[in-house]
Amino acid sequence: MTKFGEVADRVYALRYPVLDVTVTLVVGDGAALVVDTLSTPAQAAELADAIRAVARYPLTIVNTHHHFDHSFGNATLAGDGTEIWAHEAAAAHLRERGAHWQRVWYEQCLAMEPELAEDLAEATIRPPDRTVHAEATLDVGGRAVRLCHLGRGHTDGDLVVLVPDADVVVAGDLVEESGPPDFGDAYPLEWPETLAALDRLLTPASVVLPGHGAPVDGAFVRAQHALLTELDWLIRDGHADGAPQRAVAQRSPFGPDQSLVAVARGYAELSGRV
Ligand SMILES: [Zn+2]
Fold this sequence. Notes:
Layout: E1 5-8, E2 11-16, E3 21-27, E4 32-35, H1 41-54, E5 59-62, H2 68-71, H3 74-77, E6 84-87, H4 88-96, H5 98-112, H6 114-122, E7 130-132, E8 135-140, E9 143-148, E10 160-163, E11 168-176, H7 191-200, E12 207-212, H8 218-241, H9 245-250, H10 256-270
Parallel strand pairs: 4-5, 5-6, 6-7, 11-12
Antiparallel strand pairs: 1-2, 2-3, 3-4, 8-9, 9-10, 10-11
Helix pairs in contact: 5-6, 7-8, 8-10
The structure holds zinc ion (ZN).
């Protein structure tokens, strides 16, 4: 099993090989907080072992957003009375439309990762029971941890987790290091603004943990912001000119295949259909 490595004072990150998901563990005095819970019961059981190797304390769980690779381990990882925090929109997705999403993701995964698809179809969805509208502060064994919703971006319910005493920011999939941003449920016209707000929370020494991949810094966030801004303007210009979506996606800095859904979602938003 992959292990947690310390990235800042009592803040640990683990990169799970399947989908290269990054999980974060914050350890205080007699309490710990885990950010994101992986895709399946089996993955979450491995994660529970990795957590116990670092700290055997009561856990609080945070989901950065509702996607399966960040939340479907909730039921396995949470015991009785474990609080699970998320943005209110992310919690609503899992509470009200969990079965729908489970079906959608099963079908999406089937072609690429059939084993993962079967396992995530078996997962019990445990929706978050503590929700954040704009901001909340948690006490994790004497450490203040802030949960902030900075606007829509990767989804409509992205939560950023700040550990100010260690200068760590957990960005979820608002920032991706090991692959391009994913636009399937994204708001490509708002994402740049949200990332700019995240950047304003950083110091030159901040460690930023992406949803997938290795830790990054402010320069990486600003580079991703620049590319997302470029795509934002391509979509706005293309829509104004009546350009075909495929032609706009061709010019995207993230490549045509990845960007086609972003262009479609941007066009829909500009036409008032989102
Ligand atoms: Zn993800």
